[in-house]
Design brief:
This protein is an alpha+beta fold and 166 residues long. It is built from 3 helices and 8 strands; from the N terminus they run ααβββαβββββ. The chain is globular and about 50 Å long.
């Protein structure tokens, strides 16, 4: 079963039963990710349950996760679901550095995908909300004050080295 097939199953209840399939799938692969991390394409992702402010959420040399497709966003939600059994508000690596809705990823990658909840981003009540959290409203993205504490999803890049044994 491919990563995408597993993720598509998460769209339909009962999600909690399917989370075990995701864990088994990751364990069965030649996974270049450290223990407790889940691979999607060329990156590894991990849910960090300790609530931290956005600036303090960079974890063990990793960056907060960037998102580059809807499938990758669903995968991040699955990683959160596996760890928590639900969809709590969770930091990812999006940041509006200049408060003009010019969004960046903390890992320096191109901001080429958005999954905002309806009406977001909005700087609610005129407050500056330059950081992105997932699992808001209908499981979309929300802009939020970076000083609030939430769990997070971090990512690291993988480097697969293929060797041929003669």
């Amino acid at each position: 079963m491919t990563d995408l097939q597993i993720l598509l199953q998460f769209q339909n209840p009962p999600c909690l039963l399917l989370s075990d399939d995701l864990v088994r799938f990751a364990a069965d692969q030649r996974n270049p990710c450290p223990r407790g991390w889940f691979q999607f394409n060329s990156r590894c992702f991990m849910f960090v349950k300790t609530a931290r402010t956005w600036p303090n959420a960079e974890y063990l040399g990793a960056n907060l996760a960037s998102v580059h497709s809807y499938e990758e966003f669903q995968f991040l939600q699955a990683v959160v679901l596996v760890a928590t059994g639900s969809f709590p508000l969770t930091w990812i690596g999006g940041f509006d550095a200049v408060q003009d809705r010019l969004w960046f990823w903390s890992d320096g990658s191109k901001f080429d995908h958005e999954s905002w909840a309806e009406g977001e981003p909005n700087n609610r009540n005129g407050a500056r909300e330059p950081c992105i959290q997932i699992n808001f409203a209908e499981n979309g993205w929300n802009d939020e004050s970076c000083g609030k504490s939430y769990p997070s999803v971090c990512s690291i890049r993988t480097c697969l080295i293929l060797q041929t044994v003669n």
